[in-house]
Amino acid sequence: MTTLHYIFDPLCGWCYGAAPLAKTAQAIPGLTVALHAGGMMTGNARRTINEQWRNYVMPHDKRIAELTGQPFGDGYFNGLLRDTTAVMDSEPPIIAILAAEQLAGRGLDMLHRIQEAHYREGQRIADAPVLEALAKELGLDPAAFVAEMRFNSGAPTAQHIADSRALLAKVRGHGFPTFALEDNQGRLSQIPVQEYLGNVEGWKALLKDAVK
């Protein structure tokens, strides 16, 4: 079995730009996608939104949109990025992604929905009620999802983040997103993702070739 390791963060704009690549990988027969959340904005890296942050991220987001075709919504640019009470915290959405994966193998679907909620709709994806509503949209059992979120809070998520960062170092990745292919002999090779952003057909051909 060939595995595509995806090292990401739910608050990484370039990971949102790479969402079409992740979705394409989901549909390749014989390819398993393994998720590794890196915790970019956790601990001391958490922050509340202010004008300085807005001015920093907007040019990057516009470049991502131009390069990948991924849409950024007015609810994000003129809603969330002007909300100085909103907290940028990767940990709650990571916990939600782990919960969705463990409950129903829907971690990647949860990541995609979280990214849409953040970058298109301007929702506060660090807030538990928002994450619970997104899980319900995906058809996950609400009580089971909340229980799984509780189970993953704290040490399990901290360990997952540490393991993801260790993998990032092992494949010599330089940030998020990083993709690495593992063949059926366990050999790992990083994919130069920047060559495929906005080039879904080239990406599909690469992955199909990898699983032959």
Describe this structure in words.
This is DsbA family protein. 52% of the residues lie in helices and 13% in strands. The chain is built from ten helices and six strands. It has helices spanning 13-17, 19-26, 51-68, 74-77, 91-104, 107-119, 128-137, 142-152, 155-170, 200-210; strands at 2-8, 31-37, 47-48, 87-88, 178-182, 188-191. It has a four-stranded mixed β-sheet with strand order 2-1-5-6. The protein has a two-stranded antiparallel ribbon with strand order 3-4. A hairpin with a 5-residue loop joins β5 and β6. The chain is globular. 39% of the residues are buried.
Give the class from helix and strand content and strand pairing.
Answer: alpha+beta
The biggest beta sheet reads: 4 strands, mixed
Helix content estimate: 40-55%
Radius of gyration: 17 Å
What form results from the Cα inertia axes? Answer: globular
Contiguous uncertain segments of 5+ residues: none
Strand order of the largest sheet: 2-1-5-6
What distance lies between the first and last C-alpha atoms, to the nearest angstrom?
10 Å
The overall pLDDT, averaged over residues, is 97
Strand content: 5-15%
What is the total tally of β strands? 6
Number of helices: 10
Helix-strand sequence: EHHEEHHEHHHHHEEH
InterPro entries: DSBA-like_thioredoxin_dom (IPR001853), Thioredoxin-like_sf (IPR036249)
Pfam family, one: DSBA
Domain DSBA-like thioredoxin: 7-184
Organism: Serratia silvae
